[in-house]
Write a structure and sequence with these properties.
alpha+beta; 6-stranded mixed sheet; 3-stranded antiparallel sheet
């Protein structure tokens, strides 16, 4: 209560304009800013092939996306802030949530997983954690998120509404139990959806009002598109492009900081070798 939470620490010294913005835009869907990122896949394809040949690593685009965001948030920590009840908090850790189909069939159940990072991880560290957790949640396995959802939905509809609203009220006032926050996929730095895995194009997905998510990232399938391949000669060529829809809560930091952070993300995605080494200079949010 009174600005104290288990998942973050209230920021007391902040620019007056940024402090008043959450009292003008109350909800996350009031303050969504959307950006389309077009990633040239050539560098990623070469990197994945190189790592498979030389180190036996079976990397995917999702591994590179998640490792890139972990690295960006470790260098640009203000992007990892969140807003609750008009207060701005810095998060204790870097977290990424994603939805996972337990089987690739229509009837299969869907679950959500949340991974935590400290920002020092190399791409190999991120890949191993992703694959371990995804494999643990396949089949008939249930996790804490599934168990809480099952308890809530076992009640009649009017009680579900009451319980969800009560949980939202508790969260707003810093009274939500730590166990629920740890299990909730909505209390996370980034929520990621991999539409590429089901051969769909990217979307701009809304940010949930429940929880603390500051970014929602959608990966779309690759497409072949005409692009300028030589600026000097204006030569046009065909490039394989992966489009990503990124939605940011603009209240967490100013527009310049957001823009430079996403520019850094694109830079890493198009030169993944940056992720080979662990990050020994994690910047803390002051």
């Amino acid at each position: 209560m009174f600005g104290y939470r288990s998942d973050g620490k209230k920021i007391k010294k902040i620019d007056p304009l940024m402090r008043i913005v959450p009292h003008i835009m109350f909800l996350r869907n009031d303050s969504q800013v959307m950006q389309l990122q077009e990633i040239d896949c050539e560098a990623m394809d070469n990197y994945i092939l190189d790592k498979r040949r030389t180190e036996g690593l079976r990397l995917t685009y999702m591994d590179i996306v998640m490792a890139s965001f972990v690295r960006v948030l470790s260098m640009r920590p203000k992007l990892n802030r969140f807003i609750v009840n008009g207060r701005i908090f810095k998060r204790n850790t870097i977290q990424i949530s994603l939805a996972v189909k337990k089987k690739l069939v229509d009837e299969a159940d869907e679950t959500t997983i949340k991974l935590s990072f400290d920002g020092s991880e190399s791409i190999k560290d991120v890949m191993e954690k992703i694959h371990k957790v995804v494999n643990e949640n396949k089949g008939d396995v249930t996790n804490e998120t599934d168990n809480i959802a099952k308890i809530l939905t076992s009640a009649p509809n009017f009680l579900i509404k009451f319980m969800v609203r009560f949980l939202m009220w508790m969260d707003k006032h810093g009274m939500l139990p730590k166990k629920i926050i740890e299990a909730s996929p909505f209390h996370t730095s980034i929520f990621l959806t991999n539409l590429k895995s089901i051969k769909m194009e990217t979307v701009y997905h809304h940010i949930y009002n429940f929880g603390t998510t500051g970014l929602f990232v959608s990966m779309g399938k690759e497409t072949l598109e005409p692009k300028v391949v030589n600026m000097a000669t204006k030569e046009i060529g065909v490039k394989k492009i992966m489009k990503m829809g990124i939605v940011v809560d603009e209240r967490i930091t100013d527009g310049l900081y957001n823009s430079l952070s996403l520019r850094e993300f694109k830079k890493i995605m198009e030169n993944p070798y940056i992720l080979d080494e662990r990050n020994e200079n994690v910047i803390l949010d002051d």
